[in-house]
Records
---
Amino acid sequence: MAGRPYRVARPPSIVGLLLVAAVLTGCAVARPAERVELRVLQMNLCNSGMATGCYTGRAVGRAAEVIRAEAPDIVTLNEVCSDDVDILERVMTQVHAGRVVAAFQPARNGRTGEPYRCVNGQRYGVGVLAHIAAPYRGHTVHHGFYPAQDPADPEQRAWLCLNATGAYHACTTHLAYTSAELALAQCAHLLGVAVPQVQARSGQQPTVVSGDLNLRHGGSPDVRSCVPADYRHRHDGGVQQVMVTADSSVESVRSIGMDRATDHAAFLVTLAIRRQQDPQL
């Protein structure tokens, strides 16, 4: 058409495209944290065969019943033999879709340096079972022994943490029973040294620490003196404790009878954790 200029549209500049990409990338990173419910089940099964006052031979069977009924996401196990963890891991896989993983850490025999043994010859110690909802990104296991131990007790106490990559840390322990002051020193090492080192190696994620600490809320010494100020803390009225980092809230707690199969009720704690969503999803 005569008399009017014809303007050719220019393609977007490289700078403009980069700016758009940067904005879109920034939006992906800024996705809000998701709220995830975790059910944590703590059990001391007294299944070594050594403590005849609480050993019944029925504790693992009863634990399997509780896992089937409650479908916990994390199970922390104290006073168990290595095969007990394998049996209960199989039970966990029956009640959960997604990945179930397990870890076991034996106590150490202070006289021989070898793993401490149950009466049946299996290794004796603590365990963690963990259901990891999809997507499974892997997991790592961390463990160690406390620097403070009772020289008169051949059983040297250990701690164990399982890191579900991108999800949470789940830790357990069974502290010394011969001295409350020694148990407190072990608790202080766990929460002040060992767990922070795990978090530094595997990343800051919601962290659950659960176990039979042989310390009581309101006791002397008081278990609260080794719990970091920013942790949420619940107990079963006895020596079983569950502690979680401040990125989690405690929704409910409940004790579950074990039908006299062991000397401790199971302790179930429901948590709500805040977890940053993967920007790639």
Note: Residues 47 and 80 are 5 Å apart (CA to CA).
---
Amino acid sequence: MKTLSLPGHDITIGEGHPLTVMAGMNVLESRDLAMRICEHLKTVCERLELPYVFKASFDKANRSSIKSYRGPGLDEGLRILSDVKEAFGVPVVTDYHTPEQAAPVAEVAEIIQIPAFLCRQTDLVVAGAEAVMASGGWLHVKKAQFLAPWDCKNIITKIGEVTGEARNPTILCERGSSFGYNNLVVDMLGIPAMKALGVPVTIDATHAVQLPGADPRTSGGSTGGRREGVAIIAQSAIAAGADGVFLEFHEDPDKALCDGPSCLDLAEAETLLSKLKAIHSIAAGS
């Protein structure tokens, strides 16, 4: 299976390498909060000897309500992400939503991310592939909630047609499948099925526990979640062979401005990541 190394950072994802941790906050709320969350998670990952990438979105375009908080936007968001990188020396991952955003986002983020609902949009995929070819970064593709794991081969092929197969910088991310009825289901057999396509695979355990349109706090005006399921999904997926984990934290999850019901308390990070490291070591036979 292919492995990917991140230029300028001692991070390689894939078979035979440590569990990669992409973790941070759902959406940027303030510069200070981003700094505190990154500092805490970097410290935890250094202690556990796990490669760390800071995650945060500058915009959450797919919202249940037009009144939902979306974030600071592209310009301010990239400024905050740049500040975090400079302060802590960590790579960052963030998503983009239009082809025009790909290049400026890739100038700041070592890993740019295609949201699940958009992973079949050719213009978006091509723009992302071109952007990471120029930057030397990675393209983290969330598998759509409606897509079978093996059908991700078409996404990988599409990216490879831009980058060349030898350079193909794709990482696939499992985040659950939707059958309607306000729920997502993760098929753990999908992890090895996607790895069989020859690329590293991560698990987005945070969004996998979402309950779309089922937040009782807003009578369905926002997305609910089952926070208690994050650890279960993460542990199961890593046991099934996932190469990396994608997690969202907050100092006070119930007050998070976006997807609070799905994110974890920052104070729980070290306990969870310690377990995930141990499971990954067993699954890898090391």
Note: Helices lie at 31-48, 74-88, 99-108, 122-135, 153-163, 190-195, 230-239, 269-284.
